[in-house]
Amino acid sequence: MSILRKDPLSDSWVIFSEERTIRPQLFIHPETRPPMPVASYCPFCPGHESDTPPEIRAHRPNGGQPNGPNWQIRTIPNKFAVLRVEEPLRRHGDGIYDSMEGVGAHEIIIETPNHDSDIVSYPLDHLVRVLAMYRERTADLTRDERLRYIQLFRNYGFAAGQAVSHPHSQLIALPIIPSSVQDVIRSVREHFDQKERCLLCDIVSQEIKDRSRLIFENDGFICVCPYAAKFPFEAHIYPKRHQAYFRAIADEELPQFAQALQIVLKALKNALADPPYNYILHFAPNYSGDQYEKLQKQIADEFHWYMEVIPRVTRLAGFEVGTGCFINPTLPEKAAAYLREMIASDPASQK
Amino acid sequence: MSILRKDPLSDSWVIFSEERTIRPQLFIHPETRPPMPVASYCPFCPGHESDTPPEIRAHRPNGGQPNGPNWQIRTIPNKFAVLRVEEPLRRHGDGIYDSMEGVGAHEIIIETPNHDSDIVSYPLDHLVRVLAMYRERTADLTRDERLRYIQLFRNYGFAAGQAVSHPHSQLIALPIIPSSVQDVIRSVREHFDQKERCLLCDIVSQEIKDRSRLIFENDGFICVCPYAAKFPFEAHIYPKRHQAYFRAIADEELPQFAQALQIVLKALKNALADPPYNYILHFAPNYSGDQYEKLQKQIADEFHWYMEVIPRVTRLAGFEVGTGCFINPTLPEKAAAYLREMIASDPASQK
Predict the structure, then answer these.
(1) Which of B161, B178, B233 is the closest to A324 by Cβ?
(2) Looking at the partner chain, which of B32, B183, B276 has a beta carbon nearest the beta carbon of A29?
(3) Do B315 and A160 touch (CB under 8 A)?
(4) String of b and e for B211-221 (b: at least 16 CB within 10 Å)?
(5) Which of A211, A228, B11, B122 has the most beta carbons within 10 angstroms of its beta carbon?
(6) DSSP 8-state secondary structure symbol assigned to residue B54
(7) Which residues of B touch A27 (CB under 8 A)?
């Protein structure tokens, strides 16, 4: 079972996951660790369904039994979950310290049966179904009133934390609102209080007008290198329509988002020679439950979901780790111009 | 010249350092990058003084000219500084965005003339002089009223961001207070407002009583694996006496701190097979200037400096990057017990 503990200095929660306890001898230096091996056995490949925990949801357009083959997309609980739904939510104090038991969820979305498939080459309608799975899983977990935040993310490449090479995304649902989300809530609330407008709606307007940081635009979405990107070639995707939760994305917006995502990932792949990356969906915290009705309405006005794509091509040194103040050697305007060139020179993006 | 830009979503500043601009082709994946090469030429070694910018301060116990050899410790401006003192502080607005020009300082403290020396083996009195140099440099930069925060840190090993293998520390002085420091200020202020006591003084008391997370203690300092450590084997060193700034460390406390630091670094080295690490000195922001007199007095009561030592033996994946919520596989009580064993089995620590 996991434990969450609150750091009294930074006021942020840390998850201690005993499922993952490793003896100190087993920590290997990141720099000497070999690239991810090509697995001779893959637990996510079709035929190995019984080696994973029973599936939560799957897409089987041609029929078939749960936990059998014939799936196109398959969502399972993470076998090495950092948090589990079955635990009761208990809070503890120890002098000045606070902890709680690790209630939550940790799911794996296996995006395709094809081990060697690359997300940038998925047929668009397949990527749409993967994104629809994101929408469904995040909507479903919202019903659990104990879960305050749901983080959906994808780790690609060893340096970005990918452990199994079969294409997959993950979601972790938490009983707390993480500190970086609280920072964003503070910002969007302050902006709304002052102007009665959504901060990200204002950012979208300014970026469309300015165009210097714009990478791509379609009817529903814009892709930009953000004004104060923490990482070189960091890219954000913003829905044009105000919506606080990814679960609110409309059916007709799904292919638009899939197109934007694929174009950005492909441009980064071409620009940076297939870099490791993380993408992360940021949306409003979960205030389900009657007692939070007012808060839920308020956050729906203030928050605007977005996706962050972070190529992991630099190391984090002591300064960044210590201050949370990042040093970026590449201005976003330069990165965006370069990515626009990548898109323009790719015949597949010209459609 | 550098530019600082504020991220409107997280309300944190990012430094764009054009001095370090790299073409996208030059980003190399962290996982495929070779370990740091043994330099055949080292700009920090004695005899190469003219290849660095002119020194700011040096320790030459046997005499000698500035920028000549015969030094034991040498502080120089970083040739590739992310911020420079000579720039005027100008602020700009661009629609909803804020930026300022990159005034600040970026210094390198070359800790020893011996290229192959290891900080855990420095004679104690030499490490004391290195720490006295930290104290002197941070005190000196405090006099510049434009500088709001001074971050002193050490990167050891490639994965921790070390670029030159000659032993050195760095400091970066900023015209802003970084977001992670603002988080700590919020926490210590809230605690002080409620209890009229320093939060870290309370933590020190509880850790000394509890002992389960204690690694080492002497008259002036305790070393612990903190209650909510973000990283496996993360260690903190706290002064027992309340002091907001490292520059306030007393002469008689310097050898106590040097001993604590060396014992912690040696224990980590033995426990984790010479891991890459960052150490970071956290102290109160700089409120010099008459208009801040009240704030300066207030923060001196609230803030308590500490050193954070972070072994870099895990990767940061999408979840941590996205949420700021860390997953730690090792409970600090277990890490502390292991480090105590390391210290107990090292004859040099038995003095």
Answers:
(1) B178
(2) B276
(3) yes
(4) eebbbbeeebb
(5) A228
(6) P
(7) 232-233, 272, 275, 311, 313-314
Pairwise CA distance, residues B286 & B295, whole Å: 10
- Candidates B17, B31, B155, B172: best to mutate against A (most CBs of A within 10 A) is B31
Give the ipTM. Answer: 0.90
SS3 of A311, please? strand
Instruction: Tell me how close the Cα of A141 comes to any Cα of chain B, in angstroms.
Output: 17
Mean pLDDT of A328-343: 94
pLDDT tens figures, A149-172: 999 999 999 888 888 899 999 999
Pairing type for strands B97-101 and B3-7 reads antiparallel
| pTM beyond 0.90, yes or no | yes
Say how many residues make up chain A: 351
Q: Which residue has the higher pLDDT, B266 or B351?
A: B266
Token pair listed for A168: 């997959």
CA distances from B121 to B116, B117, B157, B263, B349 (A): 11, 7, 17, 10, 12
What is the per-residue burial (b if ≥16 Cβ within 10 Å, else e) of B223-244?
bbbbbbbbbbbbbbbbbbebbb
**C-alpha distance from A57 to closest chain B C-alpha (Å):** 22
**Mean pLDDT of all residues in chain A?**
90
Rounded (to 5) percent helix, strand, coil in chain A: 35, 20, 40
- Are the Cβ atoms of B191 and A8 closer than 8 angstroms? yes
Backbone angles phi, psi at B41, to 5 degrees: -125, 130
Kindly state the average pLDDT of the residues B113-123.
Answer: 96
Q: How far is A334 from chain B (nearest CA, A)?
A: 10
Q: How many CB atoms lie within 10 A of CB B273?
A: 14
The answer to whether the CB atoms of B331 and A16 lie below 8 A apart is yes
Candidate from B82, B158, B318 with C-beta closest to A154: B318
C-alpha separations of A273 from A123, A167, A266, A312, B315 in Å: 22, 18, 10, 12, 21
Name the CA dihedral angle for A166, A169, A171, A172, rounded to a multiple of 10 degrees.
50
CATH superfamily of A3-350: HIT-like (3.30.428.10)
Q: What is the pLDDT of residues B27-42, one digit of tens each?
A: 544 444 444 555 578 9
Cβ of A180 within 8 Å of Cβ of B10? The answer is: yes
**Among candidates A13, A159, A187 on the partner chain, residue whose Cβ is nearest the Cβ of B325:** A13
Distance from CA of A12 to the nearest CA of B (A): 7
- Of B55, B77, B57, B78, nearest to B67 (Cα)? B55
**How does strand A306-311 pair with strand A235-239?**
antiparallel
What are the φ and ψ backbone dihedral angles of B52, each rounded to 5 degrees?
A: -105, 165
In whole angstroms, give the CA distance from residue B287 to residue B296.
Answer: 5
Per-domain boundaries in chain B: 3-350
- DSSP summary character for residue A103: B
Distance between CA A9 and CA B304 in Å, rounded? Answer: 11
Are residues A18 and B310, on separate chains, in Cβ contact within 8 Å?
A: no
- Taking the C-alpha atoms of residue A125 and residue A307, their distance in angstroms, rounded to an integer, is 20
In chain A, the N- to C-terminal Cα span, in Å, equals 50
